[in-house]
Amino acid sequence: MNIRLVRTAFASALVVMAFGYVPTLAQVTSQRIARADSEPESWLTYSGNYQSQRYSPLNQINRQNVGQLRPFWMYQIRRAGVFETSPIVADGVMYLTEPPSTVTALDVRTGRPLWTWTPTIPDDVIIIGSPPVNRGVAILDDMVFAGSVAGHLTALDAKSGAVRWDVTVEDNKHAYYLTLAPLALDGKIIVGVSGAEAGIRGFVDAYDPKTGRRLWRTFTVPAPGEPGSDTWKGDSWKTGGGSTWLTGSFDPALNTLYWMTGNPGPDWNGDDRLGDNLYTCSVLALNPADGKLKWHFQFTPHDTHDWDSNQIPVLFDAPINGRARKLLAVANRNAFYYLIDRETGEFISATAYAKQTWNDGFTAKGRPIVKPGLDPTLEGVTVFPNIQGASNWYSPSYSPQTKLFYQFTREMSTTYYKGAAKFKVGEAFTGGGGRAINGDDAYAAVRALESMTGKLKWEFKLLSPGMDGLLSTAGGLVFGGADEGNFFALDAENGKLLWDLQLGGSIRANPMSFGVDDKQYVAIAAGWTLYVFGVP
Amino acid sequence: MITMRGVRRGVLTFILSAATCVSAAAQSSSDLAAGQQLFQGLCSRCHGIDGTGDEGPNLNRPNLHLAPDDAALRVIIRDGLPDLGMPRVRRLQDDEITALVVFVRSLGRTAPSVQAGNAENGSAVFQKLGCATCHIINGAGGSLGPELSGIGAHRSPKYLRGAVLEPGASLPKGVLPIPSRGFDEFLLVRIVTRDGKEVRGLRINEDSFTIQLKDTKNQFLSFRKSDVRQIEKEFGKSLMPGYRDRLTGSDIDDLVAYLSSLGGAK
């Protein structure tokens, strides 16, 4: 410690003594995030912990009292839009994002805003492939990090919302944009990009949290000569997609980052990209130090149905045949629940958790055996699952208490059409589309899967296939939402409905939980409002 | 008196008009194709390849309530509806917006076809059958069934004929903002309550936990699903009687002609 720091610390101590006020010196270090389960009153990273389990160890709200659940406060967003945020709670403050790319800090006791920051979004911003949304922030030390639809990553001072630094991740004129919550690791902020519907070449980036300097970039589509490049025809790799638009997971012990990748481009016409199209529709195991690929597993080789693998990879450990295994589980958009050994990338099993009509089994290494004749055509081919998948970006939940994997499941098919695809920078490059078989012909269900087999333990049916994440808790509950605006709590053991309330706006978000003054709360975004519930 | 000069001018005008018509038709046709291609790339991911809806609402509806006219539709295509989740996906040229407008409007229409029948007689058939008991036309009539004021502009004579002959087989979808996303509208539902009482009505709305109906007396009813013994959705049925065996062929032709005339159908 140098003299100046000592003097500063001394001066701070004097201020504290003079005002009798103990300032919060809390810093959200990566060590705190790694031990997130030991401070369950906080919610320090997008999925609650680095294992992305979206499980709260809090149990004050439980089977016995959840029937008394009531709203404690609400916050209405500043500008209406699709509200997909998953808040962070740390040291008395909730940090959330509002569409398209605003960051707001709220007093966690009252919902009163403490600061808000809105980036400048150019009038000619290009957003091809999703609504203009943002799913949340990352927090590290005394800074909050957020991506924007303009393709930027910005670091904000956690106490004021002032910009510490702002960098362009990639040029939005080329259709790159960010909707995900960044992931904060020790000395690194990890982000991915959206844009595969416009022929981008996807990547995962790491940035220095203090300066915004880019530390590494790992492309999800290899260039000629690199491993995997032989899975692309001609120059198709240049527009190969492989977006990285959802937050990944991290295993501190293995020092491995797990990141999922999206569809190849063009989506529905694979003629000019013959081959497996690595590393699209895959999970990548990366060394966070340099971004180097440790292993990969591809769920859907040469995808032509837009089945991005941008789902949450959930990490847990369990024995298989008497041997302790470190596992990664994904309920993939392609309707299969996968178990992968996260040390080696070895395929363990894949089990259908939703109706599917495309697959005839798997090889020993997990390569799907694809039924012929189901690629999109000019006339249309109907396939389960739907174009938006049996799952999508919204979060599953894994409960260490029940050992169940909870997944909001979409039961819907699509008639897939093939079209022409001509690449032009910044324009849609999709090569077709789909017609959803929706309405009364579709439905959804909260499904509890045995985490080691993918076998259905119970399900709770819902009217329509929305985009609704789940939260499980140590109180023996699973919280979920519905497209029609219902928020509900189920018994985590058997799926029995214990409580529900109509929130008046469609829910397209993940629930999360936190504690204040030794009381547990649950938060969910619905319509244009963030609701915080607790029991009196 | 028609002079030769007047005739010549008339012929010239006719030729020019015809040329303009041909050009407009060709333009519209090329716009339709261009619009379809743009739609596939930019819009189909949320609205479905033919506007039948997916994550976004279906557009194959006769009235887009946020875009009542083409000028409003142009603004929506140009700027998106960010507050409702529709991005402005990229900057579009005016001719691209025109092409998209042409295509989107085509989704809510079915092609007019040559029809038999006399609309005036059909109006009398409509009155005689008491159709106005359940249908509003231009502000008059009952409101149990769908309003028909502009039905001719939105539905083909073929569809209307089917709806008259066998109403349950062609329940509308995507006409009303509630419910949405491809749900059958005016779906007949039978509910048996815990105490054994049976209620039948038209589904107005529904979520995973509740359902709202209108009964045959046009009264709103609401049920929590867990509070009733049985809910049966009677797909393929309708509260409206079918007229296949109750009208002569010419009456049906006339009725269809009348319905097709509503809202300025050609």
Which descriptors would you attach to this protein?
heterodimer; A: about 525 residues; mainly beta; Methanol Dehydrogenase, Chain A; 5-stranded mixed beta sheet; 4-stranded antiparallel beta sheet; 38 strands; B: about 270 residues; alpha+beta; Cytochrome Bc1 Complex, Chain D, domain 2; 5-stranded antiparallel beta sheet; 8 helices; 5 strands; disordered N terminus
Task: Summarize the structure in short.
By secondary structure, chain A is mainly β.
Could you explain the architecture of this structure?
The complex is a heterodimer of chains A (536) and B (266). By secondary structure, chain A is mainly β. Chain A has one domain: Methanol Dehydrogenase, Chain A, CATH 2.140.10. Chain A is built from two helices and 38 strands. The relative contact order of chain A is 0.13. In chain B, strand 2 (198-206) and strand 3 form a beta hairpin. Among the domains of chain B are: 4-107, Cytochrome c-like domain (Cytochrome Bc1 Complex, Chain D, domain 2, Orthogonal Bundle), CATH 1.10.760.10; 119-171 and 240-261, Cytochrome Bc1 Complex, Chain D, domain 2 (Orthogonal Bundle). In chain B, helix 3 (70-79) packs across helix 4 (94-107), helix 5 (119-129) packs across helix 8 (249-261) and helix 7 packs across helix 8 (249-261). Helices cover 39% and strands 12% of the residues of chain B. The relative contact order of chain B is 0.13. Mean pLDDT of chain B is 84; it is low at 1-23. Chain B is flat. At the A-B interface, strand 28, strand 29 and strand 35 of A face helix 1 and helix 2 of B.
